[in-house]
Amino acid sequence: MSFYRDIIIETYENRGEPSAERIRTRPLPGQGLSTLMKVECSIKMREAYPPGTKLKIRAKVTSREGGTEFLYCHYSWPYEVFTDDEATEFIRERYPNAR
After folding, report:
1. What CA–CA distance (Å, rounded) separates 95 from 68?
2. Looking at domain 5-94, which of 2.60.40, 2.40.50, 3.90.660, 1.10.3470 is its CATH number?
3. pTM here?
4. What is the pLDDT along the chain (99 residues), one digit of tens a residue?
């Protein structure tokens, strides 16, 4: 069963990945998620900030008909921009036992 939770993601420039999106996002380490996991979220949000921007979103792990798992956040949901230090602190406090 999947549930929504707060996750810190980071924007990055798509270089050679099989996707038409110029800016992609991935979860930061330390939240119990693979940093290779894809994130489905707002294109406007991703493209509003430079690569390397940290964002807190509300997301859940899901998959399409048993395919590869990814994080899902509805495109209209609110998000917060975090500094590197804020992201590190959030992860340390929220996920103290995650690797």
Report:
1. 23
2. 2.40.50
3. 0.88
4. 469 999 999 999 987 766 677 799 999 999 999 999 999 999 999 999 999 999 999 999 998 877 889 999 999 999 999 999 999 999 999 988 875
